[in-house]
């Protein structure tokens, strides 16, 4: 009888221990000289790692994120819970949701994606695309490209 009462507590303690162990994987003090060299190009911007120490590339949209040692979302994104119960997981989502129309006449799934494409374009010295409007690019006039 006593055992049934104790079980939940035992499980909680185990979970707790796991959390503590994970947190311990962060250096007590951030020593930047022990970080891997900072990434050159990050399409989704740079971010501090989950320990708040080393500079890493931000995770892209739809990428798993969160937790100790987990990925940190890039610029303009947040780590959001998706799905229900056991299927739930945390993924990076663009804070500003909805498609946008770029100055190149292309419709982008999100402003985060447009920014990422710009970051890549920059490495190729291509001109950046700006946001013309929220929503899809309207096929203005007859010119459908
Ligand atoms: C940081 O790490 C470097 C290389 O391991 C070491 O030489 C240095 O003493 C460390 N600094 C601190 C403040 O711990």
Q: Helices, strands, pairings?
A:
Layout (H helix, E strand, L loop, with lengths): L1 H23 L21 E3 L6 E3 L19 E6 L6 E6 L5 E3 L4 E2 L2 H13 L7 E4 L11
Antiparallel strand pairs: 1-2, 3-4, 5-6, 5-7
Describe the structure.
25% of the residues lie in helices and 19% in strands. It is of the alpha+beta class. The strands form 3 sheets. It has a 3-stranded antiparallel beta sheet with strand order 6-5-7. A hairpin with a 4-residue loop joins strand 5 (100-102) and strand 6 (107-108). It is flat. Mean pLDDT is 82; it is low at 1-23 and 141-145. Bound molecules: 2-acetamido-2-deoxy-beta-D-glucopyranose. 2-acetamido-2-deoxy-beta-D-glucopyranose binds at residues 31, 33-34. Residues 22-95 form the IGFBP N-terminal domain. Residues 1-17 form the signal peptide.
Count the beta strands: 7
Report the biggest beta sheet as strand number plus sense, adding barrel if it closes: 3 strands, antiparallel
Number of contiguous helices? 2
N-to-C CA distance: 73 Å
Helix content: 10-25%
Mean pLDDT: 82
Oligomer: single chain
Descriptive keywords:
25% helix, 145 residues, insulin-like growth factor binding, disordered C terminus, binds 2-acetamido-2-deoxy-beta-D-glucopyranose, single chain, three-stranded antiparallel β-sheet, two-stranded antiparallel ribbon, immunoglobulin domain, disordered N terminus, alpha+beta, secreted
